[in-house]
Amino acid sequence: MKRRLFLASTMLIPAIGLLARTRGARAAEHEVQMLNKGPDGQRNWFEPAVLRIEPGDTIKFVPTDKGHNSASVVIPEGAEAWNGKLSKETAITLTVPGLYSYKCTPHFGLGMVGLIVVGDPAVNLDAVAAGKYPGKAKTVLSDLLRELKASA
Description:
The protein is of the alpha/beta class. It is built from three helices and eight strands.
């Protein structure tokens, strides 16, 4: 009996390791550029402004132009907030499904906001829409939400 348990466990442990490596291999890395000017002439822009990913994927925020950061605004319940440093690359891995809104702290009121969709955005879509967005950020977020709904 002990021998069968030992053999079973020696076969199970490598299988679990293989499963873990396979799961990690499926995770993707995405890049969001932090820009002074967007592709259509928008000032202070994340590109892409709306990003769809799978749970476990990593997003790297790249300060293509200096003077920007990435910080969470409204996130799904149970998710971790982030606050990147100014002009520094920031990488986050999102595992909780839902919709994440984020900002560039110094350019938030000027409309520098973005959305990340992890799986189903309906999880907290209303909370993101009801969040506090100053100045032009409110208009930009409204446009991004409209774009998100149109692409669904």
